[in-house]
Design a protein that fits this description.
single chain; alpha+beta; three-stranded antiparallel β-sheet; 2 helices; 3 strands
Length: 107
């Protein structure tokens, strides 16, 4: 009798485990995007747009990087489309970093 109950609950446990792994993957992707946005924002604020392009590699996946600079601050937004599991919906991760623009930085 215990075998029948185990056979009935095992698919649910596997499903919950897969959703948990996908959730952890999305959390890691958010951290990578936040790191990439911060690194790119600091680079653009220094006046080094080439370093901002290299910051894309910090995300570890293809990302869309958009920057906006003013005299007082620099804002970088990183977007990543993530499809953790084929039967779960696609997730778009967006992280933004804002830093003070360095005086005299050419942007």
């Amino acid at each position: 009798m215990v075998t029948a109950e185990t056979a009935m609950t095992l698919p649910v446990l596997v499903l919950l485990a897969m959703v948990g792994v996908a959730t952890v993957g999305v959390g890691q992707a958010r951290l990578r995007c936040a790191d990439a946005a911060g690194e790119a924002a600091r680079a653009v604020a220094r006046g080094d747009p080439a370093a901002a392009a290299r910051a894309r590699s910090a995300a570890g996946a293809p990302v869309a990087l958009s920057t906006a600079s003013s005299a007082s601050d620099t804002r970088v937004t990183v977007r990543m489309a993530l499809h953790p599991v084929s039967w779960l919906p696609r997730v778009t991760i967006t992280e933004t970093a804002v830093v003070a623009t360095e005086p005299g930085a050419a942007w």
